[in-house]
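Annotators were shown the component list below and the corresponding predicted structure, then asked to write short factual statements about the assembly.
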Amino acid sequence: MTDRLQRLREALEEPLLVTDQVNVKYLTGFNSDNVALLVEPERVRLFTDFRYAEGARGTVKDVEVVETKRYVYADVAPMLSGRVGFEAAVVSYANYEALRGGPAELVPRAGVVEQLRAVKEDGELEAIRKAAEISDEAYERLSRERFIGRTEQELAWLMEQLLHECGGERLSFDVAIGSGPNGAFPHADPTDRKIDAGELVIVDCGTTVQGYASDCTRTFATGSLPAEVKEAYAVCREAQEAALGGVRAGAFGADVDAIARRRIDASQFKGLFGHGLGHGVGMRIHEAPTLRPESKDVLEPGNVVTVEPGIYMPGKGGIRIEDLVVVTDGDPEVLTHFSKDLISVE
Amino acid sequence: MTDRLQRLREALEEPLLVTDQVNVKYLTGFNSDNVALLVEPERVRLFTDFRYAEGARGTVKDVEVVETKRYVYADVAPMLSGRVGFEAAVVSYANYEALRGGPAELVPRAGVVEQLRAVKEDGELEAIRKAAEISDEAYERLSRERFIGRTEQELAWLMEQLLHECGGERLSFDVAIGSGPNGAFPHADPTDRKIDAGELVIVDCGTTVQGYASDCTRTFATGSLPAEVKEAYAVCREAQEAALGGVRAGAFGADVDAIARRRIDASQFKGLFGHGLGHGVGMRIHEAPTLRPESKDVLEPGNVVTVEPGIYMPGKGGIRIEDLVVVTDGDPEVLTHFSKDLISVE
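Structure shown to annotators:
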């Protein structure tokens, strides 16, 4: 029995059927896209089909492995009884219908394993620190490369190669590049637009180590910029650093978001910070807790979160500055060390 | 109104709420992870939050764009009425509960848009042909590279770079490499195992063009192999080519699978083909129709499917040979042209 399974059992009001692939991997070490884990007070069973059952037996300890047909939910349904929780945000309506074919009384539950995952263990923090170091090094190398004349897509591929060369396992998510006016869209995919002189370039990326992600954004300048744009950069950086100062155990995610938002909204760039301040990072690139206006989360020691305000100026460009930090009882441990100065590249 | 939306309307018994991201992109061209499309007889509405609404208005034609709060399902629920279909395999139980808060009578539906997507238009076929050409070229280049002494992970990264250099947009899925005994697991991720002389190496990968995927597997030999292994290769290739001969409009997916399975099960390698024969490919790497023992699908002209039997010999290694083909009324159009001979690499 892993400590994680033990902690989960202590948190449960009734047995829980865990079907999120990442949650099962977190609890057992076993990774499959066709799996269910039934956690009961006296017993833990892992259900998976013939393709994976042998591998599962070799991976999990103190967990019974039960081989099912290809459609796990239909096979598991008759084996459930009494009250059984299920992951309501993960199970599709069709799979819920299959489970409902069995005798159990199904109880929708949300975020149970995710709450455990939100507080990282030492080994998890080590992996994330390493992933952040790799992205620091990749940003250093990127800043010595030519930007002007390359397309956003070429720059994204270059960064992917740098992350790999620096030791990253795989991208946390597709490298995002927003140059010039494209930077004004927070979720822009890299395009074939050629980067020009005298504009902003947002680079947002991360890599994984042992399956744990890093996440970092920096905004570069390709030569000299209008005064208004430099002012926006200064405001965004101030907002980012002020918000970092508010990240500590016991703080509300909504309040930390408000620190950055107030600073931007008190400037001439009011209303141009069009997304939440940050999110948890771990086995997934977006996980608990969240730092945004409508968040109900309270930060705990061991949370790993991003702090990433942005200013998006339609037609002119965008700025985003993002650090990845560990929440402690005092100041956060900042994991991303690449300079936050407005670096000029060629 | 796109032709696709028109065809969908003709197929509907009641209005359909489309929430699968790829299905919405297929129907409207608009791509967002927070979107719902309500297709009614006289009206089509696209719901998305403030982050995407402006982009949506610029993308979609003849579709009303309605801006919602961040949680689209909760905002859409009160706007539904009468009988409304929803995508039961896509909508989570939690989102279903949010929809149920509105006045509509919800009807679970499965695979409606997926059935349209399964029959490719000319433009879609062009993109897939191009993606397959790129992977052909990448396999050619890979076959001239050194295998022995490289780890599976290094070979996977090399193939990723080759696919990119040959013009691929992004990987269809993470490059899969199974060398020596690791090849005996159909779903093995690349490891740090060093490839040795005198063994089999399975390489399974693809790339996208305009968002459409290719998929191809070849198995290489690093020098001379035992007679039994060469025989297994010959059996797998015969099974693959026999199954290709059965791919045509009107054939049942289960029957095409059986052609390959019978051939392998009639040999000394009986029982070692431990997965389905193939699957549809398009905007997703796995889509309709399926070629497997339990498939109910009937092939139609314009389907694009893989034909990929394998023989997995525990402790010894694995073989898989996969082509991507277009279903026609006659012989299939094979899109993957790299040699299926057992190529010896160094």
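Statements collected:
1. Chain B has a mean pLDDT of 96.
2. The domain at 122-334 of chain B is CATH 3.90.230.10 (Creatine Amidinohydrolase).
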